[in-house]
C-alpha cells in the first residue's frame, strides 16, 4: 500500500489537532489534545485504491520541518482569526519556500461551522483569500469544519489529487529536460563527427572522379 506523509503547520488553536484526529479516528477532541496525540495514521480510498497517510503536527515532534521530508505540507488557519491567516504569508510560506520548492502546499481554512452559523464573522471573503494566496504562488485551497465533519473528506481527497498532479508535472518536466539534453548531445556529436564524415565523403568522391577519368583515358 502506498503511504504518504503530511506535515501540518499553523498557529496554535486554529484546529490542526482537530483536523488530524477527525480524519484518523473520526472523533472530535472535546478539550485541547496533548502533543503526543497529534501524529496519526489514516487510510483513504482514492480511485479504488487504499492509500495510507501519516499525519504529523509540527508541534508533536522535536524534528525540524525540513527533516520530515513530507509528500505534502498543509498550512491551517482559522476562518475567524485574521492573524492566523497573516502568519501564513509572514511565517509559514517563507519557511517552506526556504526549505524546498519541490513539495506541494495545501492551505486549509478551519472552523467553517462558526462562519456558517454566523457566531463569528470571517475577516475576508473566500475569493479575497484565494486571490491573496495566489500572489504567493499558492493555488491549492480548501475549507472545512472538524466539529461538524464538513468537507473533511474533500480536503484529503483533494490533497492526494494535488500530490498526484504535482508528481506527474515533475515527471513531465524531467522528461522534457532529458529529451533536451539528448538533443543537445546529438547536436554536439554531429558537430564533432559530422565534419569528419563530410570530409571523408568529399575525399571518396574526388578519388572516384579521378579513377573514372583514368579509365576513360
* Uncertain residue ranges: none
Strand order of the largest sheet: 2-3-1-4-5-6
- Element pattern in H and E: EHEEHEHEHHEH
Percent of residues in helices: 40-55%
Shape: elongated
Strand tally: 6
Please report the first level of CATH classification, the CATH class.
Alpha Beta
Largest sheet: 6 strands, mixed
Distance between the termini: 83 Å
User: Which structural class should the secondary elements be placed in?
Assistant: alpha/beta
> The CATH topology, please?
Rossmann fold
As a whole number of angstroms, the C-alpha radius of gyration is: 29 Å
- Total DSSP helices: 6
CATH architecture descriptor: 3-Layer(aba) Sandwich
Counted up, domains total 1
Overall mean pLDDT score?
Answer: 83
Q: Going by CATH, what is the homologous superfamily?
A: P-loop containing nucleotide triphosphate hydrolases
Strand percent estimate: 15-25%
Protein name: Rho family gtpase
GO molecular function: GTP binding; GTPase activity
GO biological process, one term: small GTPase-mediated signal transduction
Organism: Anaeramoeba flamelloides
Short description:
With 217 residues, the chain is α/β, with parallel strands linked by helices.
Structure characteristics:
single chain; 217 residues; alpha/beta; Rossmann fold; 6 helices; Small_GTPase_Rho; Small_GTPase; P-loop_NTPase
Please tell me about this protein's structure.
Pfam families: Ras (PF00071). The structure is a single chain. With 217 residues, the protein is α/β, with parallel strands linked by helices. The protein has one domain: P-loop containing nucleotide triphosphate hydrolases (Rossmann fold). It is built from six helices and six strands. It has helices spanning 16-25, 65-68, 82-99, 112-116, 126-135, 152-216, and strands at 2-10, 39-46, 49-57, 72-78, 105-110, 141-143. It has a six-stranded mixed β-sheet with strand order 2-3-1-4-5-6. It starts with a strand and ends with a helix.
Amino acid at each position: 500500500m502506498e503511504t504518504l506523509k503530511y506535515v501540518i503547520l499553523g498557529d496554535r488553536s486554529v484546529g490542526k489537532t482537530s483536523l488530524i484526529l477527525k480524519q484518523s479516528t473520526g472523533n472530535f477532541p472535546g478539550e485541547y489534545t496533548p502533543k503526543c496525540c497529534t501524529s496519526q495514521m489514516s487510510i483513504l480510498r482514492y480511485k479504488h485504491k487504499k492509500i495510507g497517510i501519516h499525519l504529523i503536527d509540527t508541534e508533536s515532534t522535536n524534528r525540524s520541518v525540513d527533516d520530515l521530508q513530507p509528500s505534502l505540507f498543509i498550512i491551517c488557519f482559522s476562518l475567524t482569526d485574521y492573524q492566523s491567516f497573516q502568519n501564513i504569508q509572514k511565517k509559514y510560506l517563507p519557511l517552506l519556500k526556504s526549505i524546498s520548492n519541490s513539495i506541494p502546499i495545501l492551505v486549509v481554512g478551519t472552523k467553517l461551522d462558526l462562519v456558517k452559523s454566523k457566531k463569528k464573522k470571517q475577516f475576508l471573503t473566500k475569493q479575497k483569500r484565494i486571490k491573496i494566496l495566489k500572489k504567493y504562488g499558492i493555488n491549492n485551497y480548501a475549507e472545512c469544519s472538524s466539529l461538524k465533519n464538513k468537507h473533511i473528506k474533500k480536503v484529503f481527497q483533494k490533497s492526494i489529487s494535488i500530490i498526484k498532479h504535482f508528481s506527474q508535472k515533475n515527471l513531465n518536466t524531467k522528461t522534457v529536460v532529458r529529451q533536451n539534453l539528448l538533443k543537445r548531445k546529438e547536436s554536439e556529436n554531429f558537430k564533432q563527427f559530422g565534419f569528419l564524415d563530410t570530409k571523408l565523403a568529399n575525399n571518396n568522391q574526388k578519388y572516384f572522379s579521378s579513377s573514372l577519368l583514368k579509365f576513360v583515358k
